[in-house]
Design goal:
The chain has 20 helices and 10 strands. It is α/β, with parallel strands linked by helices and 481 residues long. It folds into 4 domains: 159 residues, Winged helix-like DNA-binding domain superfamily/Winged helix DNA-binding domain (Arc Repressor Mutant, subunit A, Orthogonal Bundle); 80 residues, Serine Threonine Protein Phosphatase 5, Tetratricopeptide repeat, CATH 1.25.40.10; 143 residues, Rossmann fold, CATH 3.40.50; 58 residues, no CATH class. Strands 7-8-9-6-10 form a 5-stranded parallel beta sheet, with helices on both faces.
């Protein structure tokens, strides 16, 4: 049996949700699930369930426990001493799974494994589907839900921190901005937005985020922003190199050394579809590994169609075939300047002292790739000139390039053109973002939103994020807007 607290309070036994009853009964179950395997006293239950307990409070608790036992099984809730204990299997309560994922992520971060931490946190955060403790009694939710929401926000900030450490600032700006608008007084999150904007070359916007936060905090509390944010503002003004995107390095060892793990942006937690494209590119890479030339693949398509997301997904899937590592460069961050992008690639490949002369940079780059198996991801190419000198030439290496156009002037490219999702896949992505139960309740509205978004993954995620911020709103009403 599985229990849910990070959304509507539910119990499931293999199939659909079990009939738990009304709001007070759900609150009682939730109070016991918050302390799985531990005795919750009668006094604690009374104070949790009622702001002003009625004279019949203890009798009502006994009645609701009896009713829950009939639904959940007689051995699920046991009377022990002056309270009750709920015997839940380990891993059967979504809050427990979330807490364990957050704990493992903290350990991974402490060990320097920020990519693992980000993946663990995205998986843990995906357990949330709406406001916690949904359907439970108001007094109980009012007292208990804020602490749960604080845990979610802390995990989300940890996730942003880990993904920023992985160089995912470009992908994070929109998500962090939406969260700051919802939680404007959270200074850590505001600082993360400032860093993401600065690393995207949007220094003035990063400073405006600081100024907006200061004005808001003074209006709300009469206080100034904290010392950390003020120090961050000074660093942005000074263009402190410490704020530059992290360098993802691969070992300069040759191909016969131990395999190096790929260092890539995290895969989107709600990545959906593209099975045909993944199969096709995997086949191209498999064939290329047996050839005497590098494998070069370009993914093209309209803005928002999911080129970067697919490239990152593919790099994670195929990275194991490249024991000398993977490097990822967002060419847009370098203004389409191949000299700047090449300097970045050299640093990623372990070159501390990058040559000033263009020809020396090219020679050093090609020499580093020679005799090795490295995957190079060149994201957001604006044209052939920005890509051509960065493509590997050594057999065993490979490149994944994303661009709006097919880059017809580059020879030897296997080209994949991405199109908007089929309707079914578009609806599936929305369901993952807003919650499957909610999507299944209004399938026509979900399909309408998918069409209004042009079935483009980016637009679908934006619409889904806005719906997720309104967990009790009707999907049809949102579609009508």
């Amino acid at each position: 049996m599985e229990f849910s607290l990070l959304g509507p309070v539910e119990a499931r036994d293999g199939g659909g949700a079990l009939p738990l009853g009304g709001a007070l009964r759900r609150a009682l179950l939730a109070a016991l699930l918050l302390e799985p395997g531990r005795v919750v006293s009668d006094d604690s239950l009374v104070s949790s369930l009622w702001a002003v307990p009625p004279a019949t409070a203890r009798a009502q608790i006994r009645q609701h426990v009896s009713a829950l036992r009939r639904v959940l099984g007689t051995g699920t809730i046991v009377r022990r001493g002056s309270g009750y204990v709920l015997a839940a299997e380990p891993g059967s309560v979504d809050l427990e799974v979330f807490a364990r994922g957050a704990e493992l992520a903290r350990a991974a971060t402490a060990a320097g494994r920020t990519a693992d931490a980000a993946a663990l946190l995205r998986e843990a955060l995906a357990l949330w589907h709406g406001e916690p403790l949904g359907g439970a009694a108001y007094d109980f939710v009012r007292r208990t839900a804020p602490a749960l929401e604080e845990r979610r926000l802390a995990a989300l900030e940890d996730c942003f921190e880990a993904e920023l450490a992985e160089g995912c600032h470009g992908e994070l700006v929109g998500e962090i901005l939406a969260q700051v608008e919802q939680h404007p007084l959270r200074e850590r999150m505001r600082g993360q937005l400032m860093i993401a904007l600065y690393r995207c070359g949007r220094q003035s916007e990063a400073l405006e985020v600081f100024r907006q936060g200061g004005r808001l905090l003074r209006e709300e509390t009469g206080l100034d922003l904290g010392a950390r944010l003020r120090a961050l503002e000074r660093a942005i003004h000074a263009e402190d190199p410490a704020l530059d995107p992290p360098v993802r390095t691969v070992s300069p060892a040759r191909a016969d050394t131990a395999a190096q793990p790929p260092r890539l942006p995290a895969v989107l937690a709600d990545f959906t579809g593209r099975d045909a494209e993944i199969t096709r590119v995997s086949a191209v890479f498999g064939e290329g590994a047996r050839g005497d030339r590098p494998t070069l693949c370009a993914i093209s398509g309209a803005p928002g169609v999911g080129k970067s997301a697919l490239a990152v997904r593919l790099a994670h899937l195929l990275g194991g075939d490249f024991p000398d590592g993977c490097v990822h460069v967002d060419l847009r961050e370098h203004g389409g300047d191949p000299a700047r992008a090449l300097a970045r690639l050299l640093r990623l490949l372990g070159v501390a002292d990058v040559p000033d002369a263009w020809e020396e940079r090219v020679d050093r780059y090609l020499d580093l790739l020679s005799g090795r198996r490295i995957l190079v991801v060149l994201d957001n190419a604006e044209g052939e000139a920005a890509v051509r000198p960065l493509l590997p030439q050594a057999p065993g290496c490979a490149a994944l390039v994303t661009a709006r156009g097919p880059l017809p002037g580059l020879s030897g490219l296997h080209r994949i053109e991405l199109r908007p999702f089929p309707s079914v896949t578009a609806c599936e992505l929305l369901a993952r973002v807003i919650g499957r139960t909610r999507a299944q309740a209004e399938p026509r509205a979900v399909a309408e939103i998918a069409e209004l978004c042009g079935r483009l993954p980016l637009a679908l995620r934006i619409a889904g994020a806005r719906l997720a911020l309104r967990p009790h709103g009707q999907v049809a009403r949102f579609a009508a807007r």
